[in-house]
Amino acid sequence: MTQPSSNTGYALELNDLKKSFGKTEIIRGANLKVAAGERVAIIGPNGAGKSTLFNLISGRFGATSGEIKLNGQRIDGLAPYEINRRGLSRSFQVSNLFTRLSVFENIRCAVLWSLGYRYAFWKFLADLKDANERADQVLHMIKLDKKRDVLAMNLTYAEQRALEIGLTIAGGSSVVLLDEPTAGMSKSETTRFIQLIRDVTVGKTLLTVEHDMGVVFGLADKIAVLVYGEVLAFDTPDAVRANPRVQEAYLGSVLAEQQAGGH
Fold it and tell me: Are residues 113 and 129 both part of a single domain?
């Protein structure tokens, strides 16, 4: 008997997701359905639970209750490496690089498992043609070709963030989570980085946590507004900008602050 497909057409689903630390409830029944190929920005005030939500989706935290589905299959309760192997990868607010390896070696480490290579002491990495070719492709995508042999520790901050993006996409995941990818960048660096993110996530589903409204409105197809652990609104940028509840809860004050600060 043929089993019905469990794939609903959504790349990522959160169903009544909750997370408590002791008696403190951080995520309070979050619901979100992200279609394949959508770019979604998650915004909200400090303490809204944005990082906790990312940690739940990527498996770093276990949910108190509710469901998380990746391409129609439940992933809540799985270890981070299991979720990654099912097609989801993420970056972090602080770069996690092999600082004493070259840019190329960092990327090659990220592609090995996705190409089927496991731990084997008798294999020489230089002989793994497919892994080396894939690593070079990623370097080209993130525009670090000319820094191929530079140690990661010697890159500029913006270049390290680009390498972090490279590590995130190197394994070929279909769903990518970026946690504040432009934090600490200058305005010109941010502008270039938005285009880089657009380029490397073509055909992928993207969720990003971001505080810079210029980045949010310049990158996202849809915006999810998280307030007190719940998704207050999930819609197009124009609709979210015009939403009175969002303006009252968060957006109006943030836009005013950033305009006053010259952002």
Answer: yes
CB count in 10 Å sphere of residue 63 = 20
Residue range(s) defining the domain that contains residue 183: 1-87+174-192+203-263
**Mean per-residue pLDDT for 141-169?**
94
pTM for the complete prediction? 0.85
Distance CA(45)–CA(66), nearest Å, equals 23
**Shared-domain flag, residues 188 and 255:** yes
In a domain, 198, yes or no: no
Which are the contacts of 5, defined by CB distance < 8 A and separation ≥ 6? 72
The tokens describing 185, both together, are 């960048």
pLDDT digits (tens, 9 = 90+) for 120-135: 443 555 667 788 899 9
Residues 99 and 216 in one domain: no
For residue 65, what are its two tokens? 């209750």
DSSP characters over 168-200: HHHT--SEEEEESTTTT--HHHHHHHHHHHHHH
Domain count of the chain? 2
Q: Is the pLDDT of residue 6 over 70?
A: no
Tokens 């497919």 -> residue:
130
On whether both 83 and 184 belong to a single domain, the answer is yes
